[in-house]
Specification:
The chain has two domains: 1-36, Single Sheet (Rubrerythrin, domain 2); 41-145, Immunoglobulin-like (Sandwich), CATH 2.60.40. The chain is 4% helix and 42% strand. It contains one helix and eleven strands; from the N terminus they run ββββαβββββββ. β7 (91-98) and β8 form a beta hairpin. The chain is globular and about 40 Å long. The model has no long low-confidence stretch (mean pLDDT 94).
């Protein structure tokens, strides 16, 4: 799937390279257009073992246990089969977008956390997108209706 990738922090923009990277602040010149910036479940029917561990599973929770007043949660975990979080193979970060607008990056380290993160929304959009970066297998994309 096509995207514009920041060479500094690996942030991926969907439609155009931004004037400044929302994650690291790099200028527009730091972005490269990449027709295979991320893999998505629509690219091929069926799921390989690699895809089962890398495609984000995205779920929306209408009731939040932390911020009950007007909060909607978007949960993301890496893979229907849990992705390893070892020193040599792990998820580096999970990026959350709402209607293709960047909202949050969760940085992950190997060995301690599970490959999952949550976004708490006070003003939902129509769709939530998640891009996760594996240190070996690259970026993986999925989205859901909010």
């Amino acid at each position: 799937m096509k995207g514009y990738v920041c060479k500094v922090c690996k942030y991926i923009a969907f439609d155009l390279a931004p004037e400044r990277c929302p994650v690291c602040g790099a200028a527009k010149e730091a972005f490269i257009e990449d027709v295979s910036a991320m893999r998505s479940p629509e690219e091929r029917p069926g799921e390989t073992e690699l895809e089962k561990k890398h495609i984000p599973v995205v779920a929306v929770e209408k009731i939040c246990g932390i911020v009950p007043e007007g909060c909607l949660d978007v949960h993301a975990r890496l893979g229907r089969v849990q992705h390893p979080m070892e020193a040599v193979h792990y998820i580096q970060h999970i990026d959350f977008y709402v209607d293709k607008r960047f909202v949050l990056r969760a940085h992950l380290m190997p060995e301690i956390p599970n490959p999952a993160a949550c976004l708490h929304l006070k003003r939902p959009g129509t769709r939530a997108q998640v891009i996760a970066l594996c240190n070996i297998h690259g970026a993986w994309f999925n989205e859901t209706v909010i």
